[in-house]
Amino acid sequence: MQIKTARAPRRSRIQQKNRETILSAALEVFSAHGFRGATLDEIAQVAGLSKPNLLYYFSSKEEIYRDLLTGLMAAWLEPLRAMREEGDPLAEIMGYMRRKLDLSRDFPRESRLFATEIIQGAPRINEVIRHELHDLVQDKATVLRRWMDQGRLRRSDPVHLIISVWALTQHYADFEAQTRSVLGADQDPWTGGAAFLETLYLRLLAPLNPG
User: Fold this and answer.
1) Where in the chain is the domain with CATH 1.10.10.60?
2) Residue 114: CB partners within 8 Å, gap ≥ 6?
3) Which DSSP letter does residue 158 get?
4) Stated pTM of the model
5) What tens digit of pLDDT does each residue of 67-125 get?
6) Overall CATH class of domain 13-64
7) Nearest to residue 137, comparing CAs of 54, 210, 80, 60?
8) Nearest in space to 101 (alpha carbons), one of 180, 160, 158, 173
9) Are 180 and 189 in contact (CB under 8 A)?
10) Does residue 100 contact residue 79 with C-beta atoms inside 8 Å?
11) Which superfamily is assigned to 82-205 in CATH?
């Protein structure tokens, strides 16, 4: 996952590379120690930069953390943005679920860092959640309601449907150790999880009288 910064002024190639290196190092440190336990010294060390060089790009640990979370939020919302009203409803929802599960599988540190921020009340990305996330969910809920009104999906609460996809897919990353322990070493949680969730949502959402 390419971590994008909150702002994108014109930068040289090396400046952009250094910012991405710092954000990647910050992800490693914040994922291991949380916001409070992380230090600028450790982030600089992991990034292979001096602390003064790091402070040239970011003025504080808070700014690094906020930029990191903003970039992660953009990546986390992309699967929902990709759900198309002109597509087949069941195929679009299955595609959304699989994209979310793939993100959890491929970027577990990012998922856990984002989950930790939310559990703490989202103090650093509250504005994004209250506006950008809220508006996107409402837009897609309108699409889901329209499909339900057309009889192309079985009726359910569209907002809770979206929330359930978050919960059921991100669990595999946020509680991966628990899931692997329960399943055993010989089972792949991602393959089995994808098959189960597809069956679950198809049975929940397939119209009773398709026509």
Assistant:
1) 13-64
2) 69, 72, 73, 76
3) H
4) 0.83
5) 888 888 888 899 999 999 999 999 999 999 999 999 999 998 888 888 888 888 888 88
6) mainly alpha
7) 80
8) 173
9) yes
10) yes
11) Tetracycline Repressor, domain 2 (1.10.357.10)
